[in-house]
Each structure stands twice: as C-alpha cells, then as structure tokens.
Target: Ribokinase
Amino acid sequence: MIVVIGSINMDLVLRVPRMPLRGETLTGGAFRTIPGGKGANQAVACARLGHTPVAMVGCVGDDAFGTTLRAALVADGIDVSHVTALPGVATGIASILVDEDGQNSIVIAGGANDELTPAHIDAALPLMARATIVVVQLETPPDTVRHAIAMAHGMGKTVVLNPAPAAALPASVLAQVDYLVPNEIEAAMLLGAHADADDYAGSAAALQAKGCRNVLVTLGAKGVHAALADGSRDFPARAVKAVDTTAAGDTFIGGLVAALAAGADPAGAIDLGQRAAAIGVTRHGAQTSIPYLNELEPS
Ligand code: ADP
Model:
C-alpha cells in the first residue's frame, strides 16, 4: 500500500483576459471547480499510474466541497477511511485566476488542511503499518508533517517528501527522507537564503549531504536532476507542447512512487514519472490532467 498524507483542496479556476487591477471588476470566462491540493493530487496520480492500493490521510470540512472531494478520491479507488470531515470547518480551496498567456495567480485558504494534527497521524498508524511507501508535502501544519515523517521512518517505510510550498526544514527531518522531490526553487529554499536556485546540482548534493538518501530536483521542461544513492544523473523531460503545468510535479511524484511501489529502480521510476507528467502538462487543471498508466508512451 501507498499512504499519502496531505492537503485536499477544491480549485476554483476562473479564466480572465488579464489580471484585474486593485479595485477593478473584470468579466471572466468559464469558471470551473477542479479537485486539487498537492496531497490529493499525488494520491490520485499514484492510483492512476500503478496497481498498488493507495490510501489518503487528510482533512476536509463538512461542506459540499468536502463531499465532492472525498467522492473524487473514492472514484479513483483510493481508501478514504482516514480522510476526516471536520464539523464547522471549511474545506481547503485554491482561488486561481488564469490569464490568456496561461500565467496564473493563486490564493489558497487552507481551511480543514490546517487542522490536520499529529493525533490524526497516530490514528492512521495501522494504515501506515500496511504501507511500503509514505508520501508527504508541506501544505499541512509543519508539526504534523514532522510527526508523520518520524513515524513512517521509524516504521521502516520509504519516505517521500515533496517540500512544497517552499520552506526551510531542519536537517533532522531531511535525514529521515528517502526521496526528497523539490523543484529548483524549493531545493534552494531548503538550504536557506544563501542558496542559488540556478545551482540545482549543488543544492541536490548539499541536501544529500544533510542525510536525504536520494534528491530529485524537478526542472520543468528541462526534466529532473537526480542525486541518487549511487551517483548523480540528469534525466531530460519529454518534448511536448505544454498548455497548463498545474500539478506537473504532483503527477511526476505519483508516477515515481507508483513505479517504486511496483519494484522499479530509481531511474525507471523517474522515467515513468516524467512520461506521466509530460502528458499531464498537455491538459488543463489539477486532477483532470493526471493520466492513467495505459495512456503512457513506451519509454
Ligand atoms: P512543479 O510544478 O512542482 O514546479 P516542475 O515544473 O519542475 O514541477 O515539473 C515536474 C516535472 O513535470 C518535470 O520534471 C518534467 O518531467 C515535467 N514537466 C513540467 N513541465 C514540462 C514541460 N513543459 N514539458 C515536459 N515536461 C514537463
């Protein structure tokens, strides 16, 4: 089993001719609600890109978005027994404006995601005991993330951390991570203000020196730089015409984790993740863009 611990959001996506000015009212184009949240996206990607059972640990509110998001996870065959609906709390949302150039502006209201506590992790320990891989991100409270990583590492699970949104983390946490998957900005942020996002190879090596077994820095259309336990390698991305890179990183991670769970080596898992993300960026939205295993081109 793969257990994904993290955020569950409804994305409120509105197309606009251009970003509104302060105090201005614009008429937008089509409005869509699309299931998102880094945690839920990664759980869906794990489920669509492999055959290993997937369980999600997270919180929604007891509102219509919460009901819809839970149903979306169930539709992908994901175990939601530890997705808690919290009374009197709003489900997390991301308000997203997308302009005609495809650039976006996003405001997130964490809502129920901010209420995921270490006690929710403890309640899910029997689930985690059945897992081989535990996946976490940083869209839920830091204490909870640290607790989840410590528990999973202590149980001998493979720990995958996507350190997004960007934040600094203590070396004691990084030392418990088997696969750290930042983009180049997140890699630099993990190392503090002195690090340079362009020197992603240096960042990967420095993060590995802090104790992460494998560091995979995603570089958008440039692919992935991997500092693996047995050496560093660059993996170019597939050449595609991207229309929307929302959830590209989440799709990559889902493919990576699904392949690792199926017994692939790191290079094979990176390849599957990149083949999946290359399809995802040619489609709009978060969970709407994540492909199924049978859609992937052979490598
Ligand atoms: P994030 O969205 O987390 O910043 P990236 O933009 O680095 O993540 O994208 C994650 C992965 O998705 C990349 O490593 C690559 O495999 C794939 N990807 C992203 N953008 C493109 C693109 N324009 N063309 C092909 N693959 C892409």
Q: What stands out?
A: The mean pLDDT is 96.
